[in-house]
Amino acid sequence: MKTKFLVGISLLFAVIIINSCENKQVVAPINVAVSSTCDTTNLTYNSGPNRMDTIINVQCGASLKSCHSPTSISGYDYTSYSVIYSNYQKGWLYSTIFQGTPSPMPKIQQQGWDDCTKAKFKAWIDAGCPQ
Length: 131
What we know:
Blueprint: H1 2-21, H2 53-59, H3 81-89, H4 92-99, H5 106-111, H6 115-126
C-alpha cells in the first residue's frame, strides 16, 4: 500500500513538472464593441453582400498601392486572398491587428479603426476567414 502511494505521488509530481515546462502561449480574447448598425454576419472575402475585400482595399492600402499592395515594402500583397489566408493560418493577422505583434500596423496605430471595422475583422477571423 505504501509503495502504491509513493508511486502515485511520484507520478503526480512528474505530471505537474512536465505540464509546467510546456511553452503554453495563450492569446487573450479581444472584446470589440459592436453597434446595432454594424453587420458582422456572413462575412466573406469576396462574395456576398458582406465582403471583407472592400474593407481590406481601403484599410490595408491594397487599392492605394501603399501598405499591402503588390509593390509595397511590407512584402504582403493583400490584393491576394491566399496571402491573407496564409497570415491568418499563422496567427499573424489576428495578432498584428489586435495585439500589435509581431509588428504593429501603422495605419491602425496612427489613425485608428472604427469599432465596426474592428468588429468585422474579428468576426471574420473568428469564422476562419472564409473566402
